[in-house]
Design brief:
The protein has 6 helices and no strands. The protein has about 100 residues and is an all-alpha fold. The protein has one domain.
Length: about 100
């Protein structure tokens, strides 16, 4: 059943336009972050910058018409599913962990 749904989505012109538009916005945002920081960055580092900087996160959410931060992070992981394996991201998340209050 999911194969049929995927075929319909792939052949739907409006779905293709929406997907291409998001990819363009996503890649433009990544380029913008690299220009702001004046260095070439990989997607994992851009993801960390997104987590660290609320103003960049808000700007991207508005340009991509994303409602919640959770959806934004989900879109990043959908674009590159191997992103969660990055040592940069793991180290950043481990450094942000706070001990649980008892």
């Amino acid at each position: 059943m999911s194969l049929i749904v995927n075929q319909i989505k792939n052949n739907d012109p409006s779905q293709r336009i929406t997907t291409r538009e998001f990819e363009h916005i996503f890649l433009s945002y990544c380029t913008c972050v690299c220009l702001i920081h004046n260095k070439k960055m990989n997607l994992a580092k851009i993801f960390i910058v997104l987590l660290q900087t609320p103003s960049l996160r808000t700007a991207f959410m508005k340009s991509a018409s994303i409602d919640s931060e959770w959806s934004l992070l989900k879109k990043f992981l959908e674009y590159d599913p191997s992103l969660h394996k990055s040592k940069y991201i793991k180290n950043y998340i481990m450094s942000c962990k706070k001990p649980l209050k008892q």
